[in-house]
Amino acid sequence: MASKLLRPSSVWQRLAYLAASALALGLCMCFPAAVGAVIEWIAFIPAALVLYSLVEKPRRAYLYGFFFFYLMYFVVWHWVLSLYPMNFVGMTNAASAAVVALAWLGLPMLAAIAGGFVFLVFARLGKSCHNALLPFLAATLWAVFEWSQTLTWAGVPWGRLALGQLVGNFTATAMTASLLGSYFVSALIIATASLVAQALLLGKIKWRVITAASLVLGNLLCGVLLVSVPMGEESIKVAAVQGNISSREGYTAYTNSQIWERYEKYTRLAAADGAKIVLWPESVFSARFLSSDKALQRDLSSLAVDCGITLSIGCFSYGDDGEILNCIATFYPDGSSQDELYSKRRLVPFGEYMPWRTFLSFVFPPLAEIASLEEDIIAGDSTAIADGGGVALGGIICFDSIYEPLARDSVRDGAELLLLSTNDSWFGTSRALYMHVAQARLRAIENSRGVLRSASTGISCVISPTGAINASLGAGEEGYAISEVMLSKRNTPYTLTGNIFVYISLAFVLSIGAFSVYKSVSRSRRVRDAKFHLCS
Looking at the structure, do residues 448 and 329 belong to the same domain, yes or no? Predict the structure, then answer.
């Protein structure tokens, strides 16, 4: 009787179930509360009940999936409202409102277009899949979906279930990302909820609930053990300088000399406090291009020599062919500098370059008002590992940090410490700040590497190889975050194998699809043969 009451039978009941799960999961990925990290493991249960009902009646499966993912990402992307007004890039209030509205409505739609196929494929393959495998079909489809968000400029992997564990500061439950990646953690969360939902529907609770509990406790135990594994024997003191000069005002409210004075001041203080490596945020000087500004080069080199530190700074520069690059430049205490600057490898669409510029500017004219897009920045293609006094430094800049292959490539090329230079002042004090830091913590866990994160207005922090925050400077604060960080040289299973779990998940889905086709063909043959014998 209870299972009949739980089974969603009408369109409105299904939509209500989906809305409950979507809102809960979206909130868990946004708001830093420990209770959210716990709720995330069961939040998918109502949606899983709908998925199981679609196996019996797959009608509108894609639309249900679209609705679910759109609502979830509508919550995840709520922070884009903090971008208004966008007069800092020369836009009028009206154009700002149009662009912000397009972003808040459009980004969830891009995710939902792909997400709808999770429900459609599950509904179509579910009939050919044994009941015991259905929860794992849902989990693997989810993993493939999250991974698909990294493949094109239109996919932005901002909302992943694994991030909800770190936003809620449940580091141990995210540690298995060092084994099989963040998609494995997300799949565990979906599998757990789907097993509980199936137990409630079928009334056969015992083995499903035991399996669900085993997944949760096994993941937690494994995480605790991984946290306790020694990361290395050496450590180094590092500092992230935060000048608290927002891009919303820094271009006009501060002169280059004022910006320099502030960052020089805290760099000298950090060096006096024992820091050996100091990092500045992304694009500290918006109008000064390092390659053509000899005075800036001399000043940075002199500062590194005076302080006896390795100094890395986020800056703009020109490439060999005159193209604009968003870089990290490193200066050494002996007066030399890094030969090859690190150039940002993953650029922000509509922020640093415009996809389909002519077409989109014609279709949506307000995009043409974004002054910074008059000329596209060019993406880099090299990890450009720097030598920080015997410590191999791998650079990642802002948007780079949400794409896991980039940090992994740097580590595979020898990076012992990741330098993350970012400008998050566009986010204001919104939840995006915490979500972006969670991405950096996930990169640390995946590769067992410390991350030194410098943000223009916050949050700057020193992240340990286990994803813990050793020191931080909050939003709107001025100063520096400084701490010892362990230098890990071992490669994690994830660093060695990459997203192998995604490929296993894809193979699992395809094998069920192939079996479904086989059953369908066999059924058609039996029907045809029966008709043939009847006619004979």
Answer: yes
Tokens read off for 71: 């609502």
Helix count and strand count (H, E) for the chain: 19, 12
Q: Note whether 454 and 488 are same-domain residues.
A: yes
User: In whole angstroms, what separates CA 26 from the centre of its chain?
Assistant: 14
Residue 531 lies in a domain: no
Q: Is there a contact between 275 and 237 (Cβ–Cβ < 8 Å)?
A: yes
Per-residue pLDDT at 532: 54
pLDDT for 476-485, tens place per residue?
999 999 999 9
Q: Is 238 helix (H, G, I), strand (E, B) or coil?
A: strand
In a domain, 12, yes or no: yes
Identify the domain containing residue 356 by its residue range: 347-379
Mean pLDDT of 6-20: 92
Using DSSP's 3-state secondary structure scheme, residue 273 falls into coil
**Pairing, β 386-387 against β 324-331:** unpaired
* Contact yes or no for 68/25 (Cβ under 8 A): no
Total count of domains within the chain:
3
Q: Is the pLDDT of residue 365 over 80?
A: no
Q: How far is CA 450 from the centre of its chain?
A: 17
Q: What pLDDT, on a 0 to 100 scale, did the predictor assign at position 231?
A: 74
Q: Which tokens belong to 10?
A: 């009408």
pTM for the full model?
Answer: 0.93
Does residue 271 sit in the same domain as residue 178?
no
Dihedral, CA of residue 96, residue 101, residue 106 and residue 109, to nearest 10: 170
* Structure confidence by residue, pLDDT tens digits, 179-203: 999 999 999 999 999 999 999 988 7
pLDDT score for 107: 93
Q: Counting Cβ atoms within 10 Å, is residue 252 exposed (0-12), middle (13-18) or buried (19+)?
A: exposed
C-alpha distances out from residue 300 to 147, 266, 330, Å = 40, 14, 9
For residue 478 the two structure tokens come to 């001025």
The residue type found at 145 is: F
3-state secondary structure of 301: helix
- Looking at the fold, whether 186 and 91 belong to one and the same domain comes out as yes
Report CA 284 to chain centroid distance, whole Å.
Answer: 23
Q: How does residue 256 score in pLDDT terms, banded at 50, 70 and 90?
A: confident
Q: What strands, in cross-sheet order, belong to the sheet with 479-487?
A: 342-343, 324-331, 310-318, 277-279, 234-242, 479-487
Containing 145, the helix (H) or strand (E) segment is: helix 134-148
Tokens 């979830």 belong to 72
The answer to whether residue 16 sits within a structural domain is: yes
Predicted local distance difference test score (pLDDT) of residue 1: 43
d(CA 528, CA 316) in angstroms, rounded, equals 69
Alpha-carbon distances of 375 from 288, 313, 321, 493, 527, rounded to whole Å:
16, 23, 14, 41, 63
Residue 397 forms part of a structural domain: yes
